[in-house]
Write a structure and sequence with these properties.
Oligomer: homodimer
Radius of gyration of chain A: 21 Å
Helix content of chain A: 40-55%
Largest sheet of chain A: 7 strands, mixed
Number of strands of chain A: 12
Order of helices and strands of chain A: HHEHHHEHEHEHEHEEEHHHEHEEEH
Number of helices of chain A: 14
Chain lengths: 395, 395
């Protein structure tokens, strides 16, 4: 007599959480210094000092009823105005508080947009492999059907022919995630313009807009001065999900937002429907003290140097050993071809050496594995002999 | 091409929020001291000092990555163990961390339980009038059908005959809210035993458990030493939604929990299905800093004296003027019969005098109105001449 879908998602753990649990058990047996856990996307760099200062300022100077009281469902106008200001400065345009709705992280935002766009059961949402595994749960929960665009194996951009082929009259939205989890790739402006042209053509053909949901929690984690194109300027029917989890190292606090540009088709109703979806899911407002912190830190950038050092060490070492992977421009993941081609078999072998990495199959990209490098530099060093031993076994 | 239900809930404001907005506009026109807003259930008593101290202790002594990092979906075991300890002490029994799942407030908890119990479209969830208006949105969002038990007009307990009549083979759950919003009434042990006997009989008759979802955000806001019966000890298939919003004056922070007693039918799967429902709705974990605060303040009780003084002043003054209402034992609402019998007409007239109260019709109890007394004592005093003028108009 229980909801079978809910029971399924409540009992079948996602692979990453499962591996993380195995890692915890292994640490108890072998000692934490002998287990090399590369599974989680939990930032390893402490929140910027502005964040800690903002927490204390808010707690020590504001009336506590105001700090902790209900806010409107959309969030405090002053916090949303601060975010709009950052948008105006960084992306150019005339953004206002009304374009934003504060959420409990990017997942709440993404799930609310999906619920708004999936107006009837069976509508299709496209995802581009490799993609964040949890998308399937959110699409399923809204009654939608996930359509996977297979990976472009050359550069992990978007295979535009495969993309176009999979659009149908039932396609209501496409999830785009750049910088990408799990590949670290930034989609180029050329890729995105190609995608936009296809979507415009197909929207006209089918007589309804196909929305892009841009999931951008890694927008500020980019290296070598690379730029992440602002997709709403390339394709007008783009909405954005954002989280401060990665940028400000606040993943447990659940603070992010939904953004709908004024120029999108039916913009006002899109944000209203997403707000209604959030209300229906039991969201009341984003955590109020976090709204105050974000108001003060909306423009703060992360210190990505530790991630940069990790990236360099891990990439150069693995390449030197003969591993095949793309040098990532953003996020904190390396997406590596599994020696031998079987990612699950490789990850099992790695587990025997107490190295935990995530098979690509869950990201829609079998044959690859994800290595999170938001970890301690010294742990990477300690794990390198194990990686070397593993690839030697395939030679 | 947008989800019509989501658009509906995103554009049609609930009455309380709408009145609150009117109040804001009136304050701008007439000055805040001349507007008497009794609409919101926003605590007016500051959080206990233990809460403020806990925030500072956590921020100043714990590593920030630990404070703000992801927790497991169920929440930190140590926070859940602290809550289990409070349960053991207050209610007697052998409670453990595993019985609890931390949520973003009681609404997230309630909505997750509903999603777990409504295993197919059209299943029925009973609510007992007067009831919290937002229940209808959550039941609707899970595809359920809300069945209303009309108010027991004598004492606003549960009309057990009407209750029994409305149970069908499709009934999967009953929402019980005591101390009650909007009436302030605590259901007596006698009432609850009567309800339990009916539910046991009907569960046996239909061959499946009917669960009680006990929504208890006001459990600690009770007066005159009154006790709130612990429903899982009266009816074994009772799950609990709790929020620290009212008790610790943290409504904007979204922290609460789900509780399933070990002795409930299929207990383990009930909590797992509710956890799965939360995952499907985009919840990742309850805000992590709030988990730390609750770990330190799980047993802290609120200072209810200001509410007690407000209750006395408002109740005695209105009774003296000739208003008819039940003296509330808990929460911070007075549920008053609208003079003339038409609650909406009365509330409109009150609005002309800048007095904002909520019509009972939205709570399933037309003919009544809700007056929130979690407000400034002086505001109540200033509003009394208006209340007097209003009732005189009906004499």
């Amino acid at each position: 007599m229980l909801n079978s879908k809910a029971l399924h998602y409540g009992t079948v753990r996602n692979k990453i959480r499962e591996l993380f649990e195995i890692g915890r058990q292994k640490k108890e047996i072998f000692g934490p210094e002998n287990v090399y856990d590369f599974t989680l996307g939990n930032p390893s760099v402490a929140p910027p000092k502005e964040v800690s200062e903002a927490f204390l300022e808010v707690l020590q100077t504001m009336p506590s009823l105001e700090v902790h009281g209900y806010t409107t469902a959309y969030g405090n106008p002053s916090a949303r105005a601060a975010i709009a200001g950052v948008f105006t400065e960084r992306f150019g345009g005339d953004f206002t508080a009304d374009d934003f709705y504060l959420t409990c992280g990017a997942t709440a935002a993404l799930r609310s947009f999906l619920s708004a766009f999936i107006s009837e059961p069976g509508l299709e949402v496209m995802v581009i492999a490799p993609y964040f595994a949890e998308y399937s749960c959110f699409i399923d929960s809204c009654g939608g059907k996930m359509v996977v665009v297979p990976p472009d194996k050359k550069a992990l951009q978007i295979d535009l022919d495969a993309f176009e082929e999979r659009i149908s009259g039932k396609t209501c939205a496409v999830i785009v995630n750049t910088p990408n989890n799990p590949s670290g790739v930034i989609y180029t402006e050329e890729t995105l313009r190609g995608m936009a042209a296809i979507l415009e053509k197909k929207s006209a053909e089918y007589g309804h807009p196909i929305y892009v949901i841009s999931d951008e929690p890694y927008r500020e984690i980019v290296y070598d001065g690379k730029k992440v194109p602002f997709i709403p300027h390339i394709y007008r029917n783009t909405v954005i999900c954002y989280s401060y989890s990665k940028c400000l190292s606040l993943p447990g606090e659940r603070i992010g937002y939904m953004f709908v540009p004024k120029w999108a088709d039916d913009a006002k109703n899109v944000l209203a429907a997403a707000a209604g979806a959030a209300r229906m899911a039991g969201y009341v407002c984003a955590p109020s003290i976090l709204q105050q912190v974000i108001e003060r830190c909306a423009g703060v950038l992360p210190d990505i140097r530790p991630y940069e050092e990790n990236r360099k060490l891990l990439y150069e070492s693995l390449k030197g050993m003969g591993y095949d992977c793309i040098y990532p421009d953003g996020a904190f993941y390396l997406f590596v071809k599994a020696p031998g081609g079987d990612d699950e078999a490789f990850c099992e072998k790695a587990l025997d050496l107490n190295i935990l990495v995530v098979p690509g199959v869950g990201f829609g990209a079998p044959g690859y594995m994800r290595i999170s490098y938001c970890v301690d530099y010294a742990m990477i060093r300690r794990a390198l002999p194990g990686f070397e031993k593993l690839i030697k076994g395939y030679k």
